[in-house]
Amino acid sequence: MSNLSVELKTPITGPYTQPTGLFINNEFVEGVEKKTFEVINPSTEEVICSVHEATEKDVDIAVAAARKAFDGVWRRTTPQKRGILLLKLADLCEKNLDLLAAVESLDNGKSITMARGDVGAVVGCIRYYGGWADKVEGKTIDVNPDMFHYTRREPIGVCGQIIPWNFPLLMLAWKIGPALATGNTVVLKTAEQTPLSGLVFAQLVKEAGFPPGVLNIISGFGKTAGAALASHMDVDKIAFTGSTPVGRTIMKAAASSNLKKVTLELGGKSPNIVFNDADIEEAISWVNYGIYYNHGQCCCAGSRIYVQEGIYDKFVAAFKKRAEENKVGDPFHPETFQGPQVSQLQFDRIMGYIESGKKDGATVVTGGERLGDKGYFIQPTIFADVRQDMKIMQEEIFGPVCAIAKFKDEEEVIHLGNDTEYGLAASVHTKDLNTAIRVANKIRAGTVWVNCKSNKDANPKTPSLPHLSRAH
Ligand code: ADP
Question: In 3D, which of 197, 177, 203 has the Cα closest to residue 87?
Answer without folding.
Answer: 177
